[in-house]
Amino acid sequence: MTSSPESGRAIVCEDRSFAPPDRPRATIDPARGVVIFERCHVPRNFLSAGVEGVREVPFAEIRSARELRVGGGRGLGLRALLGLGRVAGMTATSAGSLASIFIGTVSGRARVFAHWHNFPAFREAILPIAAESPQGGALEDNPLVGAAVAVAMLAVTAGIVWWLL
């Protein structure tokens, strides 16, 4: 079931390290104009409890598709931080899990990893869909938001400590 979006056939990208009923999967269905996320889409809620079972997102609601690649380019600080965490034994990440695509949608976000079956075809298809989206990138999908929040929290904490002294 792998094909290009121009052919009208669905492009299925899935993690085959899981058993079939629990397998995370992302499917681009050009005939219906939707991306179907199965067990890999996290809702944009304050109290979200993890991934949703199935979420169908129309192409028009795809906000962004950002790549996180191993080695060079954007995301160097995040890779260094995750690498230090792995060395210190604080996280269960691997070099393979760091190469992925974050897909921002109106209702949440999904992450598709490079080690998933058919990732190259999925990547080739999702990047143009996100680039043509009328929604544009969401503020929370901006990579600088996390750094800005961390700096603001540090400034507030420093102000409180200074005030207490």
> Number of helix segments?
4
Q: Give helix % range.
A: 25-40%
Low-pLDDT ranges: 89-97
Number of strands: 8
C-alpha-based Rg, rounded: 18 Å
Question: What is the CATH class?
Answer: Mainly Beta
Mean pLDDT: 78
Q: Shape from CA axes?
A: elongated
Give the domain tally: 1
Keywords: Membrane, Transmembrane, Transmembrane helix
Transmembrane segments: 144-164
How are the SSEs placed, and which strands pair?
Blueprint: E1 11-14, E2 25-29, E3 34-38, E4 41-43, E5 54-58, E6 62-68, H1 76-87, H2 95-98, E7 100-105, E8 108-113, H3 119-131, H4 144-164
Antiparallel strand pairs: 1-2, 2-3, 3-5, 4-8, 6-7, 7-8
What is this structure, in a nutshell?
By secondary structure, this protein is an alpha+beta fold.
Q: What would you note in describing this structure?
A:
By secondary structure, the protein is of the alpha+beta class. It has one domain: PH-domain like. Helix content is 30%, strand content 25%. It contains 4 helices and 8 strands. The strands form 2 sheets. Strands 1-2-3-5 form a 4-stranded antiparallel β-sheet, covered by helices on one side. Strands 4-8-7-6 form a 4-stranded antiparallel β-sheet. Strand 2 and strand 3 form a beta hairpin. It is elongated. 22% of the residues are buried. About 5% of the residues have low confidence. Keywords: Membrane, Transmembrane, Transmembrane helix.
Notable characteristics:
single chain; 165 residues; alpha+beta; PH-domain like; 4-stranded antiparallel sheet; 8 strands; 30% helix; 25% strand; membrane; transmembrane; transmembrane helix
